[in-house]
Amino acid sequence: MKYTRLTKQQLEELEQEFINFLATQSITGDEWQEIKANKPQVAEDEIDVFSDLVWEGVLAKVQYLENISEKQMHLFYLAEKEMKLISVKVMNPDIDLNTTIGFSWFKKNWQSDFVEYLTASKAYTEDKNLDKFQLIEQGAAITKGDLYQWFEKVIDA
Fold first, then answer.
1. What is the rounded radius of gyration, in angstroms, for the C-alpha atoms of the chain?
2. What is the pTM of this model?
């Protein structure tokens, strides 16, 4: 398996897509029930293949990721040929960016001496989607990129 298996909840939400996936392999509903009952490893393998296909589709479309911790924000733009990063570090020991109060402080004080910025870019390896997936595995969330775009405008200004 290249990525991780979808959760039971995710599989339930994608039930129709999974049925379509099985149909492309000429597996009927009755045959699927038989496979699950008598060949559980084959059923597991089918779920793994389906999970990888779903991940491939998602990762091919994702453009922005955010990983926000107590003191740092890592904002990624996943361009065609490289990943671009805007890193924000808050050096105020009383601030936690994961709280409403902490983020409000940041919005008011983003230009203060208590905040550092860094930008970087990195070329993808041979497997762009796996690079993206590894960022998600490390805690990044898929976003619409509002924070990244705001910072990019501020930095370029």
1. 21
2. 0.86
